[in-house]
Amino acid sequence: MKINWNYIKTFLLIGVVFFLFAFAEKRNHGRVLSEVNLHFTNSENLYLTEEAVNKLLIQNKVKVRSIEKETLDLNRVETLLEAHDMIENAEVFMTVDGKLGAKITQRKPIARVMAGLPYYMDRQGLKMPLSEHYSARVPLVTGVSEDQLQEIHPLVTYIRNDEFLTKHVTELNRLKNGKYRLRLRQLDFEVLLGTVEDIDTKFRNFKAFYLKAMKDEKLNAYKKVDLQFGDQVVCTKK
Asked: Which of 50, 94, 100, 175 falls 20 to 30 Å from 69 in CA-CA distance?
């Protein structure tokens, strides 16, 4: 009987391939997480540290340096991270070589609210605690309660998105009648804005007034600038 060595070689090759595949899969399943790599997408100012993130995972018994890859619940890790007061969004993933990775987007403060216990308002208009690691340079807000954050949010956002206003506005004060008063950097007059309505028109008028008064060297001649009267800017001299 003639033996067909080609068939035997083919079967042996297939067997070797299956064996190597099974061995690699078993080894991969048993691989432990060796490292945690964190990437902060907006890392210009860190309101929390890698150490704080690792501490959070340890406190919640996520043993990322000893648990097998197949038993780690990535969704649970994402939920834990996103529950942190300083984190806006987290994307957690696993690399083939047993490393846990996380892309973390921090919350972004746009104003500091003075209260019994001061806090930030973030870019979504939500309350955000102060950070132990970094103090944001943002306008100060006074006279506002937590349930009024959504009211002032469009105003603070408008100022933050305008280079001129960001440079000059240092404080926003909500009066008891629901109107707002602004204070400026290096100038001692106050700006009466009124309610958070028609702010585009009001600030456009203010910019025109400011440039004209600066050209005429009269910025220091006023103690009050009122923007509440349509297209008019009503000024009160010292």
From this structure: 50
Taking alpha carbons only, the member of 202, 198, 187, 190 closest to residue 232 is: 202
Query: What share of residues in the chain are helix, strand, coil (percent, to 5)?
Result: 35, 30, 35
C-alpha–C-alpha distance, residues 92 and 88, integer Å = 13
Query: Reduced to 3 states, what is the DSSP secondary structure of residue 193?
Result: strand
Give the model confidence (pLDDT) of 139-168 as tens digits: 999 999 999 999 999 999 999 999 999 999
Q: Where are the beta strands (DSSP E) in the chain?
A: 35-40, 87-94, 99-106, 109-113, 119-122, 127-128, 140-142, 169-174, 180-184, 190-194, 222-229, 232-237
What is the pTM assigned to this prediction? 0.77
Rg (CA), the chain: 30
Cβ atoms 134, 141 nearer than 8 A: no
For position 42, what pLDDT does the model report?
72
* 8 A C-beta contact, residue 104 and residue 87: yes
Q: How many helices (H) and strands (E) does the chain have?
A: 6, 12
Tracing tokens 């061995």 back to the chain, one arrives at 23
**Residue holding tokens 């038993």?**
71
Residue 19 pLDDT > 60: no
- How would you class 31 by CB atoms within 10 Å of its CB: exposed for 0-12, middle for 13-18, buried for 19 or more? middle
